[in-house]
Amino acid sequence: MSAAEALALGKSRSAPKAVPAGVPAAAPAPADTTTTTTDTKSTPTSSINIVILGGNFAGLGVLHTLARHTIPALQHLSSQTTSSSTQYQITLITPNTQFLFVPASPRALIQPDLLPGGEAKVFRPLSDAVKQYGDLVKLKQAYAYAVDRTNRRVHIRHVNSHWSGDGMLVPPEAASTVSYDVLVIATGTKARSALWSMPGPGSEALKGAEEATRREWESIRNKLRNLQSGAHEHHDVLIAGGGPVGVETAGEVASWLKAEGKTEGVKITLHSGADKLLKRNCGEGLGRKAEEYLRRQFGGLVEVVHGGVKIVSVSESGPEAGDGEGETTVQLSDGSTRTVALYIDATGGQGNADAFLPKTWLDGSNRVVTKDAFFRVRGSSESDPEAGGIYAAGDVVSGSDNTLIETNFQVPVVCSSIGADLASQILGPDSQKNGVKLPAPLKQKTFKNKLAGTLLIPIGPGGGVGQILGWGVPSFLVKVAKAKTFMVDMAEPAVTGQQWK
Ligand SMILES: Cc1cc2nc3c(=O)[nH]c(=O)nc-3n(C[C@H](O)[C@H](O)[C@H](O)COP(=O)(O)OP(=O)(O)OC[C@H]3O[C@@H](n4cnc5c(N)ncnc54)[C@H](O)[C@@H]3O)c2cc1C
């Protein structure tokens, strides 16, 4: 099994389990209300509003699975067991207009032309995900900045100007509220720079949150081109972060400079921030192999620095920060200062839920704490009624290993929790006794990351290091499975929903 195939596997198959009811009985749902525009629509009283926050891997996975499997199964169940019907509405709230295939970012950032289809393969329009579902799915280009758990409303701020359904121009920064019966938090991780993740709050002045990422990429490329052409006074590159992103990025920068014939007098320093590379991701061996691989491929061009030295502050100066001619001064925790032509922060990030959930709902890294293994959100305590009907998916889940692999295993479980909770609401308190056969999408699935211990790290296009299920794999396998294309072919099915068919 190739890693690409393995990554594409996402459906957990497991025995049904007894279901705790998480969704409160459907109440007359208040309409969306807009405080500064007329972005309002009334919803039928028997509707269930499902709101998804975050439109990338986890959010789209949940959207497609609900639209294709869970909601049709709920409608089938209702038709068999009750005389009334329920209308479902999914609202996807996200500040980006484009899906970003994050795993390919290190390649897309430095050498986009080496990707089949170029950078265009990495950004895909979100409209390709939602338009197929017609009125079932609404897309709101906005970010959540507060959740009113008592009244079950999400407060959102719009991004970019757009025309509302009522023909009114909604300016950026206009605020609205959206009511929910079910809320899915899939807002991912926020990195220190927009290089690796699209911003939520703060993106209102942009056309879409992805614009911030594109700008950062362009700025890095400008600086690198200046370094390569000799226009820059400094010749050093500093990369902070010894995890997979730092290692992959060092490999991309080094292989690009090598291909351009610009290695004389240039030094790429990779600060691991620890005592070895890949410390948080795998056992002893792989970090050592990565360091050896870097040395073998690039000799003195790449220097790996350990010892737990952290970046304290970064300042840009020069003609115009971002145009490639400026220089970056980095202050390190050992008291030293370095001025470099290019600085890349690959130090990871924090959960992206502190903007709209209380601290008591989050762990120390701002990820959302769940109360069970089925991704139901815990709230302030185990019995917090305000957390009813709220679920989390993807990197934002506390304890998640922050990989797409794990996200792909989470998505069917989150949707089965939603399906099971809504089914028990349809069937009522006697649902266990009355012998109704639940359709498969409404049976509780259990979570297991069947690919735990799988990690492939390209170090340039020619190969890299990796392990599958904890077993080391040779460089040529890393090349075939990931280093050649960075798996960009997986973007399309994630967007169109083919992955979740
Ligand atoms: C450089 C890099 C390389 C990686 N490579 C791999 C790999 O090879 N294999 C692997 O398995 N994993 C990899 N990962 C991890 C993988 O990318 C993540 O696990 C995946 O992106 C998680 O998806 P997500 O939907 O949870 O979060 P994200 O992809 O971060 O998406 C979060 C979404 O939430 C939106 N959002 C943010 N704030 C708000 C808000 N307030 N309101 C509404 N929406 C909001 C964002 O705009 C975005 O659409 C890599 C990560 C990085 C950074």
TrEMBL record:
Residues 16-42 are annotated as: Disordered. GO terms for cellular component: cytoplasm. GO terms for molecular function: electron-transferring-flavoprotein dehydrogenase activity; flavin adenine dinucleotide binding. Coiled coil: none annotated. InterPro entries: FAD/NAD-bd_sf, FAD/NAD-binding_dom. Residues 49-398 form the FAD/NAD(P)-binding domain. It comes from the Eukaryota. It holds the Pfam family Pyr_redox_2. This is FAD/NAD(P)-binding domain-containing protein.
